Amino acid sequence: MRHTTAADVRLKRIPRYVFCFLTIFPVLLMLFSLPFLDELAEFNFQRNVSKSMSLYNLTEKKYDDSNRRRLIEQISLFNKEQKVKNEEIFGTLNNYSLVIVIQVNIRLHYLRYLIRSLGQAQDIDKALLVFSHDFFDENINHLVNSIKFCKFIQIFYPHSIQLYPNVFPGQGLKDCPRNSTKDEAIQMGCLNAFNSDRNGNYRNPQLCQAKHHWWWKANRVFDLASLQSYKGLVLFLEEDNYVLKDFIHVLKLMEEITKYSCRHCKLLAMASNSNTEAYYKAAMQTSKVAITDRFSNYGMVFNRSVWKEIIKCKYSFCFYDDYNFDFSFRNVFLSCMKESHFLVLYAARVFHLGAW
Which of 102, 228, 232, 249 is deepest in the core (most CB within 10 A)? Predict the structure, then answer.
């Protein structure tokens, strides 16, 4: 694997499925190699804590129909209001800012770690956090509303299982049990007996909700009133991610690279999908990024113009037989946006705590 310069990248086409490592010019080398020993030690502590903790179980209230209708109305009002908190302190959004979208389910302890890491990040006061929830919970709302280090907004997925537990997208009375065989499903006469997935399983509402929520969230974010004129970068995180202090600074450097050496790159990623342990260790040992067509869903970043291209490929996402968003999103680039390449950071600045 040969190291190439930025000039080399401009002069020749990068072959598919081959990493072409880009050596950053000296000032970037210096900035990428700043000491992060204390922070990496803190991250390692959080990772070990996450290993030993059981998942935080939120006990869902047993709503009757009237209470559920009130919750639906309340969520609808939240989404219509589009209230940006702390905007009077940190000012309005501009194209030099960063929008960070966080998909939130129910794992409160992971979300605490993510918010803590965001609060320690350099230049976070210039960012807008968008928390997209598919579960309405007072404890989670209290945690989010305790944020004082930047402006933020909450949006709520209006088609969640919490709101519709007994009809689609929840588990309807006539839906086939997930682990039923096809013969069993036909014998039961359930509605989707002839529509199992490629592995022979039937729909699991909790798993499918992540994909439905992701697509709704992405559409919703670019339609928010506060983002109507925003053309800058949008970073997509999940509740069980963890960021390093310089992630915004490094992201801005990656953006500069795309302007001069990777104009064909549609998506930036702040970590690779490869062995995360190895990428954690590499954070102090390398200053490289990679231009590649290997998709990574860790810390995905793109702007409005790329989103418009993705929207045109909606069928590649929505009809791909996968319950989660990441493989479906990868299919968009494999089957529809085929000439796309990605700029992937070798020394990760976003980590996935939930996998450990």
Answer: 102
Distance set, CA 325 to CA 50, 55, 112, 211, 220 (Å): 23, 22, 23, 4, 16
Q: What is the pLDDT along the chain (356 residues), one digit of tens a residue?
A: 434 443 333 333 344 433 333 334 333 433 444 444 445 544 444 444 444 333 333 334 556 778 889 999 999 999 999 999 999 999 999 989 999 999 999 999 999 999 999 999 999 999 999 999 999 999 999 999 999 999 999 999 999 999 999 988 899 889 998 888 889 889 989 998 898 888 888 888 888 899 999 999 999 999 999 999 999 999 999 999 999 999 999 999 999 988 888 878 889 999 887 655 555 555 545 556 666 667 778 899 999 999 999 999 999 999 988 887 888 988 998 899 888 888 888 888 999 888 54
For residue 140, say whether it is annotated as part of any ligand binding site: no
Q: Is 142 annotated as a binding residue?
A: no
Pairing type for strands 265-269 and 341-345 reads parallel
The residue whose two tokens read 């983002």 is 227
Instruction: Tell me: is residue 162 an annotated ligand-binding position.
Output: no
Which CATH fold would you assign to the domain 6-355?
Spore Coat Polysaccharide Biosynthesis Protein SpsA; Chain A (3.90.550)
Asked whether the beta carbons of 323 and 248 are under 8 A apart, the reply is no
* Residue 134 is labelled as binding a ligand: yes
Please tell me whether 38 is known to bind a ligand. Answer: no
Is 105 flagged in the annotation as binding? yes
- Confirm or deny that 171 is annotated as ligand binding: no
pTM tops 0.90, yes or no:
no
**Residue ranges of the domains in the chain?**
6-355
Is 103 annotated to bind a ligand? Reply is yes
